[in-house]
Structures are given as C-alpha cells and as structure tokens.
C-alpha cells in the first residue's frame, strides 16, 4: 500500500498525536488499519508495567466475598 485510504488520511494525524478519533466507513475502507496503526505505534517498544498483587491473592478462597 502506497497511498492511504481517505479514512486513514483523515484519522492518522490525530490518532498518532494521541487524540481520540471517530470514524465511520464502509466495509473495506481501511478503518481497522487506520486505528490499528496508531495503536501499534504507541505501544511499540514499550513493556507492560508490573502491577501490584491483588489484595485477594493472599486470602484463601473461602474468605472471598460471595457477591
């Protein structure tokens, strides 16, 4: 692909800059690639951050709340 579809050309500058975008188009118009490229660009090379353990991880299942 050498030329972006219209929806890609309209949304990529904003999504690559980190702004939200809303687009609507027909099947095959390039919507998935338009939004997916920005997602890949933002996450490329980044590692997942470690999370703190859940407060429930140290409790036996019998003490977990039922609701």
Query: Structural class of the helix and strand makeup?
Result: mainly alpha
Poorly predicted runs: none
Average of pLDDT: 77
Number of helices: 2
Helix content: 25-40%
Rg measurement, Å: 20 Å
Largest pleated sheet: none
| Tally of DSSP β-strands | 0
Topology:
Elements: H1 6-16, H2 31-43
Helix pairs in contact: 1-2
Question: Can you walk through the features of this model?
Answer:
With 67 residues, this protein is mainly α. 36% of the residues lie in helices and 0% in strands. The chain has 2 helices and no strands. The protein has helices spanning 6-16, 31-43. Helix 1 runs parallel beside helix 2. The radius of gyration is 20 Å and the shape is elongated. The mean pLDDT is 77.
Features of this protein?
67 residues; mainly alpha; 36% helix; 0% strand
């Amino acid at each position: 692909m050498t030329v972006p579809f219209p929806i890609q050309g309209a949304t990529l500058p904003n999504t690559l800059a980190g702004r939200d975008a809303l687009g609507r188009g027909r099947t095959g118009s390039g919507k998935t690639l338009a939004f997916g490229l920005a997602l890949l660009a933002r996450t490329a090379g980044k590692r997942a951050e470690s999370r703190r353990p859940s407060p429930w991880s140290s409790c036996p299942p019998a003490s977990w709340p039922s609701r």
